[in-house]
Design brief:
single chain; alpha/beta; six-stranded parallel beta sheet; two-stranded antiparallel ribbon; 8 helices; 31% helix; globular
Length: 284
């Protein structure tokens, strides 16, 4: 039977078409597992147009290992890719550039941005009410809404995310409709430390998932990043490069499937028992 690779975060709340029952979640968080194709099981051939759905897999390319088999083209999927660092020569900017090249090599459409494009004054509800949204917030919202997925390479500041990124998220969260909701995200980091900035990514997941983003389970953190890049911009350790390639490829497959295969229906519900209140409802 053909299969689609689906991560745990994607499976939570997936309904089989024509059924009221929910599929069970994967038990191992952060690990991909293979499940029968919903399209095959329910007679939706459009769900088999993905190379992975046809069981083809992705053969290695000389640089990224992301070329589609038989020169098949992906269904159109657009990704916003940016580094959350304002510093020139940032290690996270180098990692974001590598991600953008990998997505392009894998058949995706890329919008490469810089954190300066989204910089804004500290969030102030009085300013929002009296003056509206600043240009950086408008730009962040516009470019998020133009993509199906986003990739952010974020440095770790004091075991958390950069304040400039959190401030941008806070501004954009005030729009209606709220653009993070149901948008897929992939998080990565680079740091000279042995942890690779990973603690900051766990902090970053919290507001994004709260706002309804479907943050990919597997994050990528590059340790000792000041020594980790070749002159050509690749990761020096070939095994790490292959893992990076696989993360990008699998994330692209998930976003493509979510965007273009309508037989996969999703219901994401957070219920804590409170009564509906328009002043508190943040996810439409």
């Amino acid at each position: 039977m053909n299969a689609l690779p689906v991560g745990r975060a994607f499976l939570r709340g997936v309904r089989r078409p024509g059924s009221d029952s929910l599929m069970s979640s994967v038990q191992n968080v952060g690990k991909l597992r293979t499940y029968p194709s919903l399209g095959e099981a329910h007679g939706h051939p459009e769900c088999l147009s993905s190379p992975r759905a046809r069981g083809g897999g992705l053969p290695p390319s000389p640089r990224f290992g992301l070329l589609m088999p038989g020169n098949r083209r992906r269904q159109p999927v657009r990704f916003l890719v940016f580094s959350a660092s304002l510093r020139r020569d940032s290690l996270n900017t180098r990692l974001a550039e590598l991600a953008a090249e990998a997505i392009e090599a894998g058949g995706g459409d890329v919008d490469v941005a810089a954190m300066r494009d989204f910089d804004a004054p500290s969030y102030d509800q009085d300013v929002q009410r009296e003056e509206g949204f600043p240009p950086g917030a408008e730009e962040f919202r516009r470019r998020l809404e133009a993509c199906q997925g986003f990739v952010v390479a974020a440095p770790e500041y004091n075991a958390s995310m950069p304040g400039v990124l959190k401030n941008a998220i806070d501004w954009v969260s005030r729009y209606e409709p709220q653009p993070f909701n149901e948008r897929h995200g992939l998080l990565m980091s680079a740091s000279p430390s042995m942890a690779g900035g990973n603690r900051g990514l766990w902090a970053l997941r919290v507001p994004l998932e709260h706002l309804g983003s479907r943050v990919y389970p597997d994050m990528f953190s590059l340790a000792r990043a000041h020594q980790a890049f070749t002159a050509e911009g690749r990761i020096t350790d070939e095994q790490l490069q292959q893992r990076f390639d696989a993360n990008i490829s699998n994330f692209m497959d998930l976003v493509e499937a979510s965007t273009h295969y309508p037989c996969v229906k999703r219901a994401w519900v957070e219920y804590l028992g409170e009564h509906p209140d328009p002043s508190l409802d943040r996810v439409e």
